[in-house]
Design brief:
alpha/beta
Length: 162
């Protein structure tokens, strides 16, 4: 990694333009571009958060990888929004329908290593699943979660910055 990718806290950062360059470069070499994406980024798209357009542009040329637990996490977050009266039922249903259209590759996670990562970095298990997915596949992670971003940087995983 180049020094320009190292953030102030040691996190390895890739800007959206760096990712687009990387995606183009890798695709020209005939290899698929893979990025581990976490629920915070997906929910920002589904719920039309301010980062939505940047996330869509950034991931347009990438194959999105996530732990197999992702659908349950998305469903849980949508219902939490409903219970907190931040979302209506039709919002939840529309978001889920949109989620089902996102081309994702869901993968198994080594639970032992994920639990070790959770303990080492002070993460919830679900965040550690994202981290372990990125670590085991040597892929960058796309997250809006500051705690996960910091842990990924500490673990030597590149973090895509939006």
């Amino acid at each position: 990694m180049c020094e320009r990718f190292v953030g102030h806290n040691g996190t390895i950062l890739l800007t959206a333009s760096d990712l687009l360059w990387y995606c183009t470069y890798v695709q020209e070499k005939g290899r698929p571009v893979e990025v581990v994406i976490d629920p915070s980024a997906i929910l920002a798209v589904l719920l039309h958060e301010p980062e939505r357009d940047s996330l869509i542009t950034t991931t347009k040329r990438a194959d999105l990888i996530a732990p197999a637990s992702l659908p349950w996490e998305i469903g849980n977050a949508l219902i939490a929004g409903l219970r907190r009266q931040r979302l209506r039922l039709d919002d939840v249903q529309a978001a889920w329908t949109s989620y089902e259209e996102i081309p994702l590759r869901l993968v198994d996670v080594d639970m032992g290593r994920a639990l070790d990562a959770a303990a080492e970095h002070g993460l919830y298990a679900y965040d550690a699943y994202i981290l372990e997915t990125a670590l085991s596949r040597r892929l960058p992670v796309l997250t809006l979660d500051k705690t996960l971003s910091r842990a990924a940087g500490q673990a030597g995983v590149a973090v895509l910055e939006i």
